[in-house]
Design goal:
Layout (H helix, E strand, L loop, with lengths): L1 E2 L4 H13 L7 E2 L13 E2 L2 H6 L9 E4 L6 H10 L4 E4 L6 H14 L2 E3 L5 E4 L3 E4 L12 E8 L2 H13 L4 E6 L10 H8 L7 E6 L5 H10 L7 E5 L27 H11 L5 E3 L6 H7 L23
Parallel strand pairs: 1-2, 1-4, 2-3, 4-5, 5-6, 9-10, 9-11, 11-12, 12-13
Antiparallel strand pairs: 7-8, 7-10
Helix pairs in contact: 3-4, 6-7, 7-8
């Protein structure tokens, strides 16, 4: 179910998702737009009306939130009160105080909340939540055994396409969002994947700020995840810049000596001494990292020694 369904971005996601995966979106909610026929799914004024509707109510188990930042907390509480326990928050710039309350409610109610600032989740051949992959997800994604986790939605998609060209497909791609308070962390995802036989390896993309990458390293060191992990941490340059400046995501801030890319790299490299973890110094080295960890290709490498650009410049 999509909250804020008739907004510009949400309505586009609904139309695209229904064209790709008919039936995956059951309903939308926008106050005052109930019974609207402008979208290919039924629209309700409230979430309560949607979950009580005899045609769609019982099939709704996930909410996708596309509302203004100041309305996110209300939307989350309405979903949780309505019995929806899996939420994706796409909205950017959610107030930090509201994010803290959302996190506390997530823990108290044992819910799964991804974001804010998440682009969504994509599982090839199964479905998509959000806008990840764009109008044609088959371009960057092909089914395989890699899980790609990143704070950045764009980088998640770019990484999937890079690996696809070299013969590795995607089992699941998840953009967890880059806010200061993350409701779903790298460690949370690794715990969910540790016993999944479909997962051949994990590609983890991190950045400065927070301690979520360190938490993942601690989990691996404690034996909580033993599958191959190739990691890349961006932003080493930030340590030469003044503290307290955000570079990109709201959570990408180094302050009080915490959140440095070099510290995250060191923790992951320490985990790699006894566990299958490889940290790529440069982004493109993720490919050789996965290969060195023994993760088999899902299909043939489509590149050659000379990779031609998709588009050629004139002249």
């Amino acid at each position: 179910m999509v909250i804020g369904a008739t907004g510009r971005e949400a309505s586009q996601v609904i139309r695209e998702s229904e064209a790709l995966y008919p039936g995956i979106i059951k309903a939308g909610v926008t106050p005052g737009k109930g019974s609207s026929t402008e979208l290919p799914v039924p629209i309700f004024d409230t979430l309560a009306q949607a979950v009580q509707d005899p045609k769609v109510g019982k099939s709704i188990n996930t909410a996708l939130i596309y509302v203004p930042p100041v309305s996110v907390l209300d939307a989350v509480m309405e979903c949780l009160d309505g019995g929806i326990k899996v939420l994706y928050i796409i909205t950017e710039h959610v107030p930090i105080r509201d994010s803290e309350i959302i996190f506390q409610e997530k823990v108290r109610r044992n819910a799964v909340i991804v974001g804010g600032t998440s682009l969504g989740c994509f599982v090839p051949s199964v479905g998509r939540i959000g806008a990840i992959g764009g109008k044609d997800p088959s371009i960057p994604f092909k089914a395989g055994g890699l899980v790609i986790i990143s704070k950045s939605g764009g980088l998640t998609v770019t990484t999937a396409e890079m690996f696809k060209r070299r013969g590795w497909g995607t089992y699941c791609a998840l953009a967890i969002g880059g806010d200061i308070i993350s409701n779903t962390t790298y460690a949370d995802v690794l715990k969910e994947l540790k016993d999944d036989p479909n997962v051949k390896g994990v590609v983890m993309l991190g950045e400065p700020g927070g301690s979520y990458e360190e938490q993942a390293a601690e989990l691996i060191q404690a034996g909580g995840f033993n599958k191959p992990v190739a990691a890349f941490i961006s932003g080493r340059f930030q340590e030469r810049m003044p503290e307290g400046v955000a570079f990109g995501h709201a959570g990408a801030i180094v302050e009080r000596g915490m959140g440095k890319a070099s510290d995250k790299i060191a923790r992951l490299e320490a985990a790699g001494k006894k566990h299958p973890v490889k940290v790529a110094f440069y982004y493109h080295e993720l490919l050789s990292a996965i290969e060195s960890l023994g993760v088999p290709r899902d299909f043939e490498d489509s590149t050659t020694d000379l990779v031609k650009p998709l588009y050629s410049t004139i002249g």
